[in-house]
Amino acid sequence: MRHRTTGRRKIANTPVELTELGFGASVIGNLYRVTPAEDATGAIEAAWDAGIRYFDTAPHYGLGLSELRLGGALRRRPRAEYVVSSKVGRLLVPNEHPRGVDSEGFVVRDDLRRQWDFSRDGVLRSIEATLVRTGLDRLDMIYLHDPDDHWRQAAEEAMPALADLRDQGVIGAIGVGMNQSAMLARFLRETAADVVMLAGRYTLLDQSALDDVLPAAEELGKSVVAVGVFNSGLLSRDRPAEGMKYDYQDAPPALVARALAIAEICAAHGTTLPAAAIAFPQTHPTIINVTLGMRTAEQVVRNVELHQQHIPEGLWDDLRAQGLIRSDVPGADGTGRSSQCL
């Protein structure tokens, strides 16, 4: 069975439903290079036309540019038909010593700077600023953003503040987004988080989330959104090559060789490496959505086509048998065996 871009899955124990494929708005904040405004708008419109109704952004992305662009494109759409998430933990404040261009990967002016703040007041100020930038009347989901070095304040101040807003009905779901999985598991076990955004730790090349956050989510009946499924690019092409990125750095030759081996097995099953990379996370029963960064309408069309590709039931079994994914990776039915429906 094909994935349905418009198919929706609910975040456990919340009213929030996400389409199986989400639109990641980091790149329209000029991540690594300039994205013209018309390209950003065209990407959002193409996502809408394809049935995508989950859109994720953050103040960090382009020092607010992503939120401005996303809100501008969505404001004329029926508000009840889509879900928007943003993040807290980095307040945007005036930059006393601008150098002209942002220093954290976004090609934007640095008139503002990021200030870490997981206090209750910081959370409320950040949400209010996001509402102003997006022009939206509400946010459906809020994540704590990269609290790696701020566990105590994030767990003891920020998360209770979000829980209060959720309990008042101001926000539909709350969670945490990180590039590591161990602390995400801790947030699920020790705080009021409904959902976690897991970046790069449950992919065809890295299944380390099976050691902590995915078992925690399954045990507690909570949900996971997967991002970074291409591991910064190495899984994004049919044939990986030297010089491609893995987790923001040049991929080691051994990983390139492993990705090529996976690509060959995908080809033998009549599919492609990037299609399998998108499908793989959702074979785990707790992962309800894969969100991809999309810069242009053409990228949206390609990603939707990849998402809709048929993935033969034997692919995961063959990858396990070849030792290319872990033996404890569950099949599409969540049992460790393949299923005919992905």
Can I get a quick summary?
The protein contains ten helices and 14 strands.
Give a structural overview.
This protein has 342 residues and is α/β, with parallel strands linked by helices. Helix content is 33%, strand content 18%. It contains ten helices and 14 strands. The strands form four sheets. An eight-stranded parallel beta barrel has the order 3-4-5-8-9-10-11-14, surrounded by five helices. The chain has a two-stranded antiparallel ribbon with strand order 1-2. The chain has a two-stranded antiparallel ribbon with strand order 6-7. Helix 1 runs parallel beside helix 9 (297-308), helix 3 (120-134) packs across helix 4 (151-167) and helix 5 packs parallel to helix 6 (213-220). The chain is globular, with a radius of gyration of 19 Å. Residues 336-342 have low confidence and may be disordered.
> Structural class, please?
alpha/beta
What value does the Rg take, in angstroms?
Answer: 19 Å
Portion of residues in helices? 25-40%
Instruction: Provide the β-strand percentage band.
Output: 15-25%
List keywords for this structure.
342 residues, 10 helices, globular, 8-stranded parallel β-barrel, two-stranded antiparallel sheet, single chain
Tell me the layout of helices and strands.
Layout: E1 8-10, E2 17-19, E3 21-24, H1 37-49, E4 54-56, H2 65-74, E5 83-88, E6 90-94, E7 112-116, H3 120-134, E8 141-145, H4 151-167, E9 173-178, H5 182-190, E10 195-199, H6 213-220, E11 223-227, E12 245-246, E13 249-250, H7 253-268, H8 273-279, E14 287-293, H9 297-308, H10 315-321
Parallel strand pairs: 3-4, 3-14, 4-5, 5-8, 8-9, 9-10, 10-11, 11-14
Antiparallel strand pairs: 1-2, 6-7, 12-13
Helix pairs in contact: 1-2, 1-9, 3-4, 5-6, 8-9
